[in-house]
Amino acid sequence: MLVRIKLVGQDDAVILTELVIRFRETYPATDPVSVELDLHPDRYISSESLADIHAKLDPHLVLAKLTTPAGTAVYIDAEKVIGVVPAGLIHHPTAKAVIRFTEGGDQQVQETVKDVADALRVAA
């Protein structure tokens, strides 16, 4: 499904929802808040709120809501996850798990491996 998103400082973009891997507020935080959307192989920064992006994408994706090491929400498409491993010494001190994606890359989260697995299972 194609959806339109408003980009920061640019015209709108139309994205294919099936390519979305995750989305979250940008870090460090901006004022006004902006949202980072990761699609393989691209990344877009939207001027829309996290709630507005979620409302556009939720009907089309299998989303699990988790917590970044910074304490903000991150939405993960459960169908793009290939594994979850415990966070190690190289990761953020508040990260307890690292989610690995089919297209490469990862997302550190505050939840445990079990909590992430449960959230992905519920989303599916």
Please tell me about this protein's structure.
The protein is an alpha+beta fold and 124 residues long. The chain is 15% helix and 41% strand. The protein has helices at residues 50-57, 113-123; strands at residues 2-6, 12-16, 20-25, 35-39, 42-46, 63-67, 73-77, 81-86, 97-101, 106-109. Strands 5-4-3-7-6 form a five-stranded antiparallel beta sheet. Strand 1 and strand 2 (12-16) form a beta hairpin. The longest helix has 11 residues, at 113-123. The radius of gyration is 14 Å and the shape is globular. The model has no long low-confidence stretch (mean pLDDT 95).
Key attributes of the depicted protein:
alpha+beta, three-stranded antiparallel sheet, 124 residues, globular, 41% strand
Into which percentage range does the β-strand content fall? 35-45%
- Give me the strand/helix succession: EEEEEHEEEEEH
The geometry reads as: globular
Uncertain parts = none
**Derived structural class:** alpha+beta
Major beta sheet summary:
5 strands, antiparallel
The overall pLDDT, averaged over residues, is 95
Task: Report the helical percentage.
Answer: 10-25%
Strand arrangement, largest sheet?
Answer: 5-4-3-7-6
Number of strands: 10
User: Compute the gyration radius: what is it?
Assistant: 14 Å
Count of discrete alpha- or pi-helical segments spanning 4 or more residues: 2
First-residue to last-residue Cα separation: 19 Å
